[in-house]
Amino acid sequence: MTSRHWEWVFWIAAIAIPLLFPSKLLLINEIAILALFALSLDLLLGYAGIVSLGHAAFFGVGAYAAGLLAKHGLTEPVSGLLLASAAAAVIGFLSSFLVLRGSDLTRLMVTMGVALMLLEVANRFDTITGGADGLQGVTMGPLLGLFRFDLYGRTACAYSLTTLLVLFLVARRIVRSPFGLSLRAIKGNRLRATAVGVPADARLVTVYTIAAAYAGAAGALLAQTTQFVSLDVLDFHRSADVLLVLVLGGSGYLYGGLIGAAIFKLMQDGLAAWTPQYWQFWIGLVLVLIVMIGRERLSAGARRIWARLARQHAGEQPS
To answer: What does the longest C-alpha to C-alpha distance in the chain come to?
Structure first.
């Protein structure tokens, strides 16, 4: 089966699962939002080689922007989503010049510092953001003027999945373009890419801004579908979780963030129900196993098992 066929199967399954499991729509909505957030980080880490410990900064800016817009009258979801993404893109553009300076370790500290500063700003200006109590009074109007957000998550799930699909297609177009190829060259060897005429700094600023806009869109989806924003959207654990998602799913091929988000959320949901106090231990154990064994060996083992099952199934078919 070709890669294009696998993509069709993936997205058909993504559309069919909400129809098959209507009681899990809220969980699926969370998976779609986390997948979009991971997709934004994959553009940085997988294609530009920029590691970030503060990617939640843009997620939080998007969430607060969408929440404040809705609270002050702009209740149309799509308009709020676009404006929130633009706000996150502006913050990403301004902070990108700091991130470009220094070594990888410096970048880690700068990205984390930006997120911590925004967290403190949101906490300090509690008259605007709600501070520790959260931004309340967020009310969303019907999506496209037709579909109201309900308690069961039907509209929210469809909205988040559609947004994820559209932005995924845009991201795929970006990484397959000459711009995306130049990012790979910069990641491989920045000095050599610069020597052959690739404007490395401009490319990195651009991709950082795009990734910030994607993260802002994910934050806006969370604010709009839950109609609540808290300081949690800027917390360090958001940045850590999205890195774990890419560890689980892999980076550098876009689908890693989507697959990792599904694995992470399903593990979190299942383990939290099984052992509410120690679910993080089991997720940590899985991560340790992935690092010890290696994702390539796990993938190769899964392929061998799948091929064996396929041969057994074919042998059981009547001739």
So the answer is: 74
Residue ranges and CATH numbers for the domains of the chain are 3-274 (1.10.3470)
DSSP 38-73: HHHHHHHHTTT----S-THHHHHHHHHHHHHHHHTT
Q: Which structure tokens are listed for 28? A: 């699926």
Q: Return the structure tokens found at 174.
A: 């970006």
CA atoms 97, 240, 40, 132: torsion sign: negative
Mean pLDDT of 67-78: 87
pLDDT tens, residue by residue, 260-288: 888 888 887 777 777 767 667 777 777 77
pLDDT tens digits for 5-27? 677 888 888 888 888 888 888 88
Structural Rg of the chain based on CA atoms: 20
Give the C-alpha separation, 116 to 72, whole Å: 26
